[in-house]
Predict the structure of Cadherin domain-containing protein.
Amino acid sequence: MDKDSAENSRIVYTVDHPDFSVSDSGEISARKRLNADQNRERFFIYRFNVTAEDRGMPRRRSTAMVHIRTENTNDEPPMFVPTREFSTAVAEDAQGGTPVLQIQAIDPDRDQVSYGFLDEFGYETSETELFEIDKDTGLIRLKENVSPMELLNYGSPYNLTVVAKDDGSCCDEENPLLHTSTATVRIGIADVNNNKPEFPECGGYSQKAKIEEGQYRHGEAPVIIQVQATDEDASTNGEIIYSLYYARSESRKPFVIDSVTGELRPSPHFVFDREQKAFEEVTVKATDKGERPLIGFCQFTVQVIDFNDNSPEFERPIYETSISRSIQPGASVLTVLADDRDSAPNARITYRLEVDETSGPDHFDDVSFFTLTSASVGEITLAKSIPQSRKRFAFNVLANDNGKPDPRQSLVQVAVIVHEQAQNAPIWQSASTCKQSIAVEEDIPVYTELFKCRASSANNKRSQISYKMTNGVKLGTNYKQKFREFQIKEAGQDWVVIRNMENLDYEETSNYTLTIAATDVRSQVSTSKQFTVIIKDKNDNIPR
């Protein structure tokens, strides 16, 4: 109030709080709905100043402090934080009782909140078939004796409705007013990387994987085979990267593989040679993309298909023999032998007699005096009687491998000397060091003496005997690199000693057949003897 009169006593009121206003009569009103929930107590006190100012001159004013206490009412439901929709996953190998998700709801009225599930009928419960919830803390757990894989029987993700309920105790403990809120929880299965990649068709790759021998440039390499691995894990745990495994000591790397598709191709510039290695081993590694990657392996062989890239090879650079003028047509003169390191059908050798044009016109018809018993056998026989004027014959033998697409051929010269009397071939002598076959360990030292043999002349005991080793009849092995013959003289006699010039390996070849030709130097009549070297295996390879 103001004791002055007229204009000097007219009072204007103001407040310094944005939530309140004051009328000219001094009545204080709230500008908006007051909320006691902003404080953790059950009430909230607003404090502000009210100023009264008259209209006189000079103007005078006074100020008073106003306290307004607001009492809380249970008018707010619980609120889930941070959202009303939750998604999580439980590991597929989790044990019963494993915590899954912590749910939290707060009540603006500061009431106590409890939690539960709503079943399909809308009734509140503390557990479902698979999960349970702590009514006080809101922690959802997997029930005891429940496997996460049982979620699949109910569909994944598994949907839960969680209800949060206040106790309505803030205002009327005798007749509480309860408020509830619901939230949706979706629970899926989190894959665990517990399955390694597998190659279900690995056992059949060796029958399917083939590559023709030769060299392939980049961009021209064909797909040899496409391997495929499977992984029962999901997501990145089931995604696979392919690579090739080579031992650290392995310098030969014949193949490359596409890390995504599993397509196996020949390495650029690598030369595949069937005669050197008919099968190439491959070890494919499949690695998943798990945090701790698991690995699966598949080992198989790639067959190197033969290409007709080798010509027939005669066991001698030239054949020389002698015959008696008196032998009758049909008699065997000599046998030529050619090998082909290619495989069938590129090594089906046939023989044909041809004129040796390098021997001169006098020998152009020499080939007519001889014939082959069969095109597939190199045995040459006399076709007609030898005239008195002939002292020497010269002709060629052509060997054809009949390969495809283009056959390959080789020529060898045959010289036949005519004697007035029959000439006999050298005779091999028996000796304890000259057995038909011998078995040796694969780790015998290089230069070991394997055979020691001799032959003697049947025509002249003093005639010198020369020896020469051929590669025998077994294809695809270069015996001249592995073995060598040495001619020695003991007590005036000519002997031949066969030694190994390299290490032997059972895994490479288990036996060798060697042929030694003994030739009488004077008569040039030869005879051959075969020897077999059997390699015994030793446990010299570790499992891989």
